[in-house]
Amino acid sequence: MPVPKPKAVRSVRVAIVGGTGAFGRALAQRLHATGVDVAVGSRDETRAAELGAVYGVHGAANEEVVRDADLVILSVRSKAALEMARSLADAIGDTPLLSVAADLRFDAGAVYPGRLGRSLAEEIADVVRGPVVAGFQSLAAASLAQPEPPDEDVLVCGDDAQAKRLALDCGARLVAGRAVDAGPLAIARALEGLTALLLNVNRRFGVEAGIRITNLP
Fold first, then answer.
1. Which one, 51, 105, 132, 190, has least CB within 10 Å?
2. Structural domain contains residue 181
């Protein structure tokens, strides 16, 4: 079900691991602009601090920013996501983690899902203690970086109600549409594959395609 647009409050701290990458930067800027207490992390502590100063948020090493967070967003390249989650597992502890990556395969001018079995988010859930949710795979960094929020919905899935609520609240701040609960964590297999679909559409039509779920109440 969709969640309403949130009010600007600073009661929740979101740590973005990989916050100096294109998607992480776009997330940090838009969440901060809506009143979320954001911290950006990086393997390069100096770069994180410099970027954080530019955006008006806290920036530090990944291990530091995740320790005080209410929600950790893992925004690193898909090939590095599982190992990054494993390396930060102790620092993250029981804090909920949102996986936004999608494992992709590029071949013969097209984009394909990188895995046909379990999703990357489900494998990340195997190596961290806290609950894992997946979402935001349909959002593009270029769209989030525009002055106005993209006219689309955002999808989130997971098995833990509280973790999902935190992710949905963040998602509702990113788009002009709605944040939609897409079901259990196993649905991450479809959400990650959705990234491949959208990238193929983008290549074909030269756009930044998004998703709208119709006929919701």
1. 105
2. yes
Is 66 a member of any domain?
yes
Q: Could you report the per-residue pLDDT of 174-186, keeping only the tens digit for each?
A: 999 999 999 999 9
Give how many domains the chain has, as a whole number: 1
The verdict on residue 215 lying in a domain is: no
Q: SS3 of 193, please?
A: helix
Task: From 12, 1, 67, select the one nearest 34 (Cα to Cα).
Answer: 12
What would the pLDDT profile of 141-155 be if each residue is shown by its tens digit? 999 999 999 999 999
Residue pointed to by tokens 């609240």:
169
Q: What is the residue whose two structure tokens read 């949905």?
A: 168
Measuring CA to CA, how many Å separate 156 from each of 66, 67, 87, 100, 200? 21, 23, 24, 9, 22
CATH number for the domain spanning 101: value is: 3.40.50.720
**pTM of the prediction?**
0.93
Q: What are 143's two structure tokens?
A: 């769209």
Cα–Cα distances in angstroms (integers) from residue 125 to residues 44, 80, 174, 208, in the given order: 25, 15, 24, 30
Quote the tokens at residue 51: 């970027």
